[in-house]
Amino acid sequence: MCSRFVSVVLALTVPLTVSAQEAMVKQILGSPEFKVAAAFIEKDQPRFVKELIELTQIPAPPFKEQRRAKAYLEMLRQSGLSDVEMDQEGNVMGVRKGTGGGGLVAIVAHLDTVFPEGTDVTVKRAGTRLSAPGVGDNTRGAALMLAVIRAMEAARFRTVTDILFVGNVGEEGEGDLRGVKFLMQTGKYKGRITQFIAIDDDQPNAITHGGVGSKRYRVTFKGPGGHSYSDFGVVSPAFAMGNAIARFSRLEVPERPKTTFSVGLVSGGTSVNSIPFEVQMVVDMRSVDCAELKKVNDQFLAIVREAVDQENTGRSTRQGRITADPRMIGDRPCGETPLTSPIVQMTAAAIKAFGLTPAFGISSTDANAPMSLGIPAVTIGRGAGERSHSLDEWTVVEPKADVQSIQLAMTIIVAVAGVK
Ligand SMILES: [Zn+2]
């Protein structure tokens, strides 16, 4: 997942009248199945740690998750799910049948990491601390999901809805949510998923209920190029791009809903004594609000067009004209699950039943995709960790805390799927 904003104000002002949800959670926690599951989770914790290490040490760079996905597919099969398969996008999944009716709940944990091929992913252990790139985000989420499935199987929990457990590809960066987009928009479960939970946060009490949308472009400016001295006066893609960047930098965007823009990378040119024939920039725009995101996106594209026009009218086009080609390289849909929706309330009720205070937040996760389609979705915690997306990323495998995070995730999942 990406950086997360906690909506503190909302958390304090929204009344949590969760009686139906609280009753469901109470019923689950008081059931004989929960007792069996809780005892199983304690005994199973070493296996959770073993699988977390095993999975972390299988590299899963963006667009190269296949090896890890194959290993995970086998683990899903061993955990007792039916219809275990890999889809055309590379997601691996399996179904746990419910008693019937009530739709299909998808639980997803992304398998990909941000780290490129060749990164050393050996897990270093110091006491209860495991350090390795990707060990927290989101390998811990993937391992936690396996532990939850095993516990549900051991306790023979009978949920109302079917549950689809997915280890998905393509959450991070230029993966652009490709795995979950395929799942929701193209794959065989398209149109059947009625509720959605992503496991992908390092706060155990997290409820991400809003998705920050983003639009990303690579814009290539081209021109005739030439000699810096003898062709002076000829149009330059560098000047056009510089003008576009300067104007873009002065755009006014609202602080709330938080809306941002950035030029992350500029490149191109030939030599110090040349007018370049090509330069490029890579741009990122985000907002928690879909309308604001569209607005900044449209303004940006207009600025690029105007900067090109200004260059073509302000300097000589005798050797050719400046063109700009903005290519979209990222499109994360935005959306929101209302705080009052049953899935948010159920998750909050479970978190509170474990003695924690729900931390409502807005972020950019796999849940963006279902939210943008109006499907109720949240992202929940996977257990403690820090330094996501850095080489010194770490997580803690402390039996008591692990057991709590597995039990809590299981309770949320069972409650959302419903029991009779
Ligand atoms: Zn993540």
Report on this structure.
Helix 2 crosses helix 9, helix 3 (32-56) packs antiparallel against helix 5 and helix 9 packs antiparallel against helix 11 (399-417). 38% of the residues lie in helices and 25% in strands. The chain folds into two domains: 5-211 and 334-417, Aminopeptidase (3-Layer(aba) Sandwich), CATH 3.40.630.10; 213-332, Alpha-Beta Plaits (2-Layer Sandwich), CATH 3.30.70. It has eleven helices and 20 strands. With 420 residues, it is α+β, with helices and mostly antiparallel strands. A hairpin with a 5-residue loop joins strand 2 (82-86) and strand 3 (92-96). The strands form four sheets. Strands 1, 2, 3, 4, 7, 8, 9, 16, 17 and 18 form a ten-stranded mixed sheet that branches. A four-stranded antiparallel sheet has the order 5-6-20-19, covered by helices on one side. It has a four-stranded antiparallel sheet with strand order 12-14-10-15, covered by helices on one side. It binds zinc ion (ZN). Zinc ion is lined by residues 1, 110, 137-138, 171, 200.
The CATH architecture of the largest domain can be named as: 3-Layer(aba) Sandwich
Q: Which ligands appear in the coordinates?
A: zinc ion
Q: Work out the number of β strands.
A: 20
Low-confidence stretches: 8-13
CATH names the topology of the largest domain as Aminopeptidase
Overall SS class: alpha+beta
Number of domains: 2
Residue share in β-strands: 25-35%
- Euclidean distance between termini CA atoms: 34 Å
Helical content stands at 25-40%
Q: Could you state the CATH homologous superfamily of the largest domain?
A: Zn peptidases
Q: Mean of residue pLDDT?
A: 94
What is the CATH top level name of the largest domain? Alpha Beta
Major pleated sheet: 10 strands, mixed
